[in-house]
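Onboarding guide, step 5: your first structure request.
Type a short instruction followed by the sequence, for example:

Predict the 3D structure of this protein.
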Amino acid sequence: MAVTPILEIERTRKWRADNQERCDFLNARRYKRNREEIIRKNGEWDKQNPLARYVRNAVCLALKSGKIEKPTTCSLCDKDGDLQAHHKDYQLPLDVIWLCRSCHKREHIGVTP
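The system replies with structure tokens like these:
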């Protein structure tokens, strides 16, 4: 699998930001057409990655119970929006940094903003 160049990621991110309604429509349509396949693949991933699944669920439960709070801005770029929990170590399930999708992607491919 080839790594997507950062410039392409940024171009795509900008297009998505400028065309949010279109993206929502396309994502909903894609999910509707491929629902069973998406559910099957997600289930397979969960089976292959039990620790990641456990950690993801632990964060969700901690958020619901109030043990941790989700900030409103990305820890790296201070962008507002939908944030994702990033774990540097799965052995510490509630030790997360909150990143926007773009920074989270960069973190996983090893590129800093």
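Each response can be followed by summary notes, for example: The mean pLDDT is 88.
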